[in-house]
């Protein structure tokens, strides 16, 4: 964890003057988010905004991610994936297992439950243990999603630590039918993406048809990119990069991970421009939110993908 924390955390890291700390909600509280919070979580409508600000500020105290400062936890990335309605949800209703890696406040799991998935086979994992209880505070659903569905695990931990960690020992290798990684892989450089991809493939069920899916920041031109300050340097002062993919480079990454792990797979990836976004996705997605995002560049696109075991 220390390795992660020495990244984007200079002195005063929790300051609310960072540009990715949005002081007020604008269009993030979509009808979908409002519906979940009032119907599933039973938050009285008059208390909604105060509830969101209070949880967000606690999450900011844990780590000042852009996804926290910009309220991404109100956006259901998995539900916007083109395979959600016709593949993910029906499979979950038949009892398949789902793991959300890098789940943060667990909004995607809650949306699945709200849409009818049985909670007993849904799991989340993240680097920060505090997210488990904070997610319960946000979604008020400890009566429906019992403790034990959240694993604190560093996907980049040294081999021995990862192998003996909760994901590999409590959930187990080769056990998960559906793994979702929304806005996750793009946090890392190519080397760490490859490490992450091989570990995710090790968790994936051996049954053909098992699937990894998600979305993340992509780019027309692939390659390592240096982020804007203060994310551009590691704690030791070295230059820190993240790898941005187009569909071709994304496929290369997973083919390489498939070779390392011996997993046969089929990769699909597509870049979405704001104008042709209605690719089976949630039409309530509002790109004006994206315009305000601190790390977005003009060549940034949303990359939707799936990796299926064949
Ligand atoms: C950009 S947020 C995305 C959260 C969520 N999936 C979403 O779509 O809103 C990335 C998440 O990955 C987690 N994370 C970062 N590095 C990690 C690591 N090495 N192992 C596990 N989780 C990590 C962060 O704590 C954070 O919650």
Question: Average pLDDT across residues?
Answer: 89
Cofactors and ligands present? Answer: S-adenosylmethionine
Largest β-sheet summary: 7 strands, mixed
CATH architectural type: 3-Layer(aba) Sandwich
> What sort of overall outline do the alpha carbons produce when their principal axes are compared?
globular
Topology, element by element:
Blueprint: H1 2-5, H2 31-40, H3 48-62, H4 66-69, H5 84-93, E1 98-101, H6 107-114, E2 122-126, H7 130-139, E3 150-152, H8 159-163, H9 166-171, E4 178-180, H10 190-203, E5 211-219, E6 223-226, E7 241-244, H11 247-261, E8 265-272, H12 287-291, E9 300-309
Parallel strand pairs: 1-2, 1-4, 2-3, 4-5
Antiparallel strand pairs: 5-9, 6-7, 8-9
Helix pairs in contact: 3-7, 10-11
This protein binds S-adenosylmethionine.
Residues 4, 65, 67, 72-73, 77, 102-104, 126-128, 154-156, 182-184, 187 line the site of S-adenosylmethionine.
How would you describe what is shown here?
The chain is α/β, with parallel strands linked by helices and 310 residues long. It has one domain (76-309): Vaccinia Virus protein VP39 (Rossmann fold, 3-Layer(aba) Sandwich). The chain is built from twelve helices and nine strands. Helix 3 (48-62) packs antiparallel against helix 7. The model is unreliable at 1-11 and 275-291 (pLDDT under 50). S-adenosylmethionine binds at residues 4, 65, 67, 72-73, 77, 102-104, 126-128, 154-156, 182-184, 187.
